[in-house]
Specification:
Blueprint (H helix, E strand, L loop, with lengths): L6 E5 L3 H5 L2 H4 L7 H12 L4 E5 H4 L3 H12 L3 E6 L11 H14 L5 E5 H5 L1 H7 L4 E3 L4 H12 L11 E4 L5 E2 L11 H4 L30 E4 L2 E2 L20 E2 L2 H15 L3 E4 L8 H13 L5 E6 L6 H9 L2 E9 L3 H6 L6 H13 L3 E8 L6 H14 L3 E6 L7 H9 L27 H16 L2 H11 L1 H11 L11
Helix pairs in contact: 3-9, 5-6, 11-12, 12-13, 16-18, 19-20
Length: about 500
């Protein structure tokens, strides 16, 4: 047995369960950014830490549990339940729960703490249903550190630990008496990810991220330049760990210093800014891009933006800094549906913004959501028509999902609407996925439309001609292979 560590962070996940066969070649393999950030925070406090990345190592939950117990013997296991994109925490709860249960079966004395978007949204339910000792209902790093200190001190009561749900000596669930303060000095307290604890040779970029160099998707890294989001989109749950819409920044100097390290130490070229909204604060974005433009790096970065934040004065700076892809949340072509999702812009705004970004030499991933409240078959078709008119270099088509922590989830619970029975059924690409029905559409209506839209988009001759002109025949062939991967759906009788 290896020497015991204070904290073992375990990244949960099952790519096959979440993506079906698309996970083999086409999807990205993401580093666990929150595990890496929290490890840095704990390390700076003096704790010994390790990270085990279950999906990157491509092992089942049983192996992750065995490694935890036999090779690390930690004083505290922390499972940060986040996803590969901001709203994808819930789908990893199945893997997280299984890992926790198997650890407890092997050694009931090892305490397990869950943190992340889903546990923060449903802390009491997580305590009731999962084999965990603790749940953090806010961000995590302060709570994790104080929990470790209480464990080391042999305390039976954790009442003084902020934002910590725990069990007393009689097994009763205790809610926290106070809330964890959010870390405000990100530069000083969490200055980047503990990359040395991660299997860096395992990570790879999403396929479209590398359409200009499709056979060079590794090495790859994803990182935050900010935390939180000030917006209130009805389908989004990303602010659950922060308690409210919030927005905190690392300085451009610290961000670029981390990129320096990634490039020089690991040869990283492909980078994702995983910020919930990168293109938001003009000074922040310009500061990062201006610094990157002074480097002689051939980096390939993608990041999230909004239709109403892509200001002209930033576009050339983004391109000069290596930002080659922007992901835009277009969501719907219906003003009525979009207004309900709290996205206030017109289709002409969308068209103009996409063309301006492309004119700067930056590619677009358009995000579209089918089945939002007030959506209908004609309105979903309007969205598909807009997607094909825009003909972005890539597109993500989603079904409306009531993720815990979102306004849609609260609405679904209030109206007693059918929700997925298992947490992994919240996966957009899973076999047993169950979108949220609305007054006009069943879950099967929405999913059937979404899957057909995806196929129609990526087999459209107009799209394939554009891909051939911009990226070459090899990428056209790659997209063709992607469309040949079967995507089976239980509610569609497949």
């Amino acid at each position: 047995m290896a020497e015991s560590v204070d904290i073992l962070f375990i990244n949960p996940g099952d790519r096959k369960q979440i993506y079906q066969d698309l996970g083999d070649e086409f999807c990205g393999i993401e580093p666990p950014v929150f595990a890496g950030l929290f490890a840095t925070y704990a390390r700076q406090k003096g704790a010994s830490v390790a990270i085990y990345d279950t999906p990157a190592m491509m092992v089942p939950a049983a192996e992750a549990a065995r490694v935890a117990v036999e090779e690390y013997a930690p004083k505290l296991v922390v499972v940060p339940v986040y996803g590969f994109q901001p709203s994808a925490s819930t789908q990893n709860m199945g893997s997280a729960g299984k890992i926790a249960r198997l650890i407890k079966e092997a050694n009931a004395d090892i305490p397990v703490l869950f943190t992340g978007t889903h546990p923060a949204a449903l802390p009491r339910r997580t305590m009731l249903e999962e084999a965990v000792d603790f749940v953090c209902d806010l961000e995590g790093p302060v709570t994790i550190w104080k929990t470790l200190q209480a464990i080391k001190a042999g305390q039976d009561s954790f009442a003084n630990v902020p934002s910590l749900w725990w069990r007393d000596s009689e097994g009763r669930i205790q809610a926290p008496a106070e809330r964890e303060p959010l870390v405000t000095d990100l530069d000083g307290e969490m200055p980047g990810i503990a990359w040395d604890l991660l299997p860096m040779d395992r990570y790879r970029a999403h396929n479209w991220h590398c359409f200009t160099h499709i056979n060079e998707r590794q090495p790859y890294a994803s990182m935050h330049t900010s935390l939180g989001c000030p917006y209130h989109c009805s389908f989004c749950c990303i602010n659950a760990p922060f308690g409210k819409p919030s927005y905190r920044l690392w300085s451009p100097q610290v961000v670029v210093s981390e990129i320096d390290f990634l490039v020089e130490r690991y040869g990283v070229k492909n980078i994702k800014f995983v910020d919930e909204m990168f293109v938001l604060n003009k000074r922040h974005v310009a500061g990062i891009c201006d610094l990157l433009a002074t480097r002689d790096y051939d980096v390939n970065i993608w990041a999230y933006g909004r239709v109403d934040t892509m200001h002209d004065e930033l576009l050339d700076k983004l391109k000069a800094g290596g930002v080659n892809w922007i992901c835009l949340g277009i969501e719907s072509a219906s003003d009525y549906v979009r207004d309900g999702a709290e996205k206030v812009f017109t289709n002409q705004d969308v068209i103009d913004t996409v063309r301006r970004i492309q004119s700067a030499g930056i590619h677009i991933i358009g995000n579209y959501v089918f089945g939002l409240p007030d959506d209908t078959i004609p309105r979903m078709q309007q969205t598909m028509d807009l997607a094909q008119e825009l003909n972005c270099e890539f597109a993500n088509f989603y079904s409306a999902m009531a993720y815990p922590g979102s306004k849609l989830y609260d609405m679904a619970v209030e109206k007693n609407l059918p929700l997925p029975r298992e947490w992994h059924h919240f996966s957009q690409h899973g076999y047993e996925t169950l979108p949220l029905a609305n007054d006009a559409l069943s879950a099967a209506d929405i999913l059937g439309f979404r899957d057909k839209a995806w196929m129609d988009y990526f087999t459209n001759p107009k799209y394939l001609d554009m891909v051939r002109d911009v990226f070459g025949q090899e990428v056209v062939d790659h997209v063709g292979r992607m469309t040949q991967v079967p995507m089976k759906r239980k509610i569609l009788g497949q």
